[in-house]
What does this fold into?
Amino acid sequence: MKHFMRFSKISKAFKEVPSQYVYQINPIQNFEQIKQFRVIDLEGNLIAKEYNNIPKETLNQIFDLMLTIEEMDNILYMSQRQGKISFYMTSFGETATTVGTTAALQPQDFIFPQYREQGSFMWRGFTIEQIVNQCIGNHLDGGKGRQMPVHYGSKDLNIVTVSSPLTTQVPQASGAGYGFRVNGENKIAATWFGEGAASEGDFHSAMNFAQTLKCQTLFLCRNNHYAISTPTDDQFKGDTIAGKAPAYGMRTLKIDGNDLLAVYNGVKYAREEIIKNKEPFFIEFITYRIGDHSTSDHSVLYRSQEEIDSWKSGNNPINRLGLFLKKQGLRQFNDEHDNQIRKDVKNRVIAALKHGSEQQSPSIHDLFTDVYDEVLPHLQDQYTQLREHLTKYKDQYPINKFKGGL
Amino acid sequence: MYKHLLKLRYAYQPSIKFTHVQPSTQYTPIKMTVREAINLAMDEELAHDPNVFLLGEEVGQYQGAYKVSKGLFQKYGGDRVIDTPITEAGFTGIAVGAALYGLKPIVEFMTWNFAMQAIDHIINSAAKAHYMSAGDQKASIVFRGINGATAYVAAQHSQCFASWYSNVPGLVVLAPFDCDDAKSLLKAAVRNPNPVVFLENEILYSESFELSAEARDPNYLAPIGKAKIMRQGDHVTIVAFSKMVQYSLGAAEQLFKEGINCEVINLRSLRPLDRETILESVKKTGRVVCVEEGWPQSGISAEITALIMEGGAFKYLDAPIQRVTGVEIPTPYAFNLEAMTFPKTEQIVDAVLNVLKGAR
It folds into this structure.
């Protein structure tokens, strides 16, 4: 009887906020679409003048790197078709996002890549030779021949190794960003993922945790319109991926990903805000995947050549930056000079492929190292068995091609 | 007391009903790839039962990541062949829900390696549903995808999940080898009321085999829980499944030239295991070599070794059982390293010779 509610006496303990209530059913569906931040237009004309603040030298280095990556991607894609490497992923049309972002970050910031970020790697100093050796899987590969092509990483450059399962890197970035905040470090964890990868459950956990636990994490979604063959219209509804971020309580920017100045300025702003407020930030770049998803794809099967061409000629990051530099007098354009740059890159890649293919394969001892911190007895046994097997069948295996032989 | 234990041991075997219709003789054998056989099986099942549907990444308009579902989207439309957004955990959960409702989904994983994020749905939702609901909830669902090594795809794309899933009560786990297996086992899996894990192999997709007259019959379903003796012999029993059957047959051919007759058993069904066929063969030959692509610890070979010990065939053994398994490391990428990571014909030949030592 003690618990019987006495309706005559309403408890005064519950504090109401009258402005929280409406008295009609009006479901919300259409939010105002978040607009893309832009500094230069499709012809490289400067529109948002206050963001014309990137040093001339930096802009030229960025432009050079974008040309380099385009040329390198071309050669490596073809080399896969020629059987020199087994797999490759190009980044045509998306280099303003990766190079621009990495240029705007600090070298101590951790980057958690997806797989299309040659721009991030190379801006920080990862060389053509390192890329080629990793793709070939020879003994010079920093990864000891353990991973598929384009699955590189570099502890020195603070870039976490590429991992195949999608989106797993995103909650990892939340975790790292949490560590940075708790330790009071001037570092952020920047993570890349595509609009398709944002469908994974890990995306939700990562975003929710980052905001609730206040992680120094920068979420970078590269919306390139296709996830293999799946167009964005089949991947999600609502206002792209950026539309989801405010729902987590996160500050959000949508940026024209083919506008290098917008990318650079947006990321610089976001990084400052993350360190200042000790809270995550979300950026979605709108760009377009001009090439195939990978060498295992043939994109004209599911999209029209006209669509590809309209982005390639009409909204191309390299063209837009180039036109901007030309119009602002920040770079002397000279056909001969520019062709020479492309030719030099081409020759360098070809030389790296040649040199790389002549190298020995990783040593068989490396089959068993790094499984644990030390080679445990059962693995030592299996190594012995393998050596016996190879000794017995040595004419069936190209032992002279293994670094360190038997 | 022993008889009592025997009764207990076989009590847990599920009563799997299979329809073994007397096959029609009007079909002639035809050669096709395993990929085509799987496609044909799905085509026939989609036509046969309107509750059957296929879902997964790239299965529809792209014709399948490995082209296994080629032509099905055009034939059956987007309601029966569904391209999902990228989330294994998501679409597996959705499929299990549909199955509990009464539909019959076929879930395609781009590789079983990516299904790890969906394993909670496969096991805690699908596998255990019937038991936990005291028979009320059936999850008639087929989970299929490529399993094991594929060549040049390294650690996160090459793991064999046979031992993980065959460990779980409530699941049926099948591993086809040739076209007959692929087509008639998949059809049987779709029509089976239990959740089925169907482990395919990417390298076998492009291999051609003859599809027998029996398997061509659209009414023919392979019996679940029955292994197939691919080659008869009385010196050594080689037990294998999936791609390893091919290497085992190669080893048997090589050994035949030296006067050694191997009996090669293609398991086809990892859960339930065809204990009878294995034990009968062991009693005949007295020597066993188990082959699997996966890692040795807690693998399929470990289970076969145990069941031979328990099943009354122990006293027929003339030598300890030999296992040939993958090297116990995450699969490396470099071509030379990967070539040494998985069993091939040579290792199986060596193992047979080892197990025969002392017999001559």
